[in-house]
């Protein structure tokens, strides 16, 4: 008896996807939770592609993302693999340490209390 793989699986090498690991997601979701509690953000989306992983943040579900937190491992030795991209496509911060890269987002939580 010969065992054959199911016909719906593609043959050949499995495509590699870039994804956030548990530690990275913990850091990102910590900032996200504080921003949700402050009423700034309401929804998020995660995309895992072949060359990058993206955590998109939305004010409302039907809008374009306010910010995108991107992970590009190919840039690890150059500019750093993490970046925060604004709504207009401008890179706000880039680096190799995720906590440092997310600081511009955390500054929005600091408000003057009267």
Helix-strand layout with pairing:
Elements: H1 22-37, E1 43-48, E2 53-58, E3 67-71, E4 82-85, E5 91-95, H2 98-101, H3 103-106
Antiparallel strand pairs: 1-2, 2-3, 3-4, 4-5
- Largest sheet, strands/sense/barrel: 5 strands, antiparallel
**CA-based gyration radius:** 18 Å
Our estimate of the beta-strand percent is 15-25%
Helix content: 10-25%
Give the termini separation: 78 Å
Main sheet strand line-up: 1-2-3-4-5
General shape: globular
Instruction: Please tally the β strands and state the result.
Output: 5
Total DSSP helices: 3
**Structural class from helices and strands?**
alpha+beta
Mean pLDDT: 82
Provide the succession of SSEs: HEEEEEHH
Could you list the spans in which at least 5 consecutive residues all have pLDDT below 50? none
Notes on the protein architecture:
- The mean pLDDT is 82.
- It is globular and about 75 Å long.
- With 114 residues, the chain is an alpha+beta fold.
- The protein is built from 3 helices and 5 strands.
- The longest helix has 16 residues, at 22-37.
Record keyword descriptors for this entry.
114 residues, alpha+beta, five-stranded antiparallel sheet, 3 helices, 5 strands
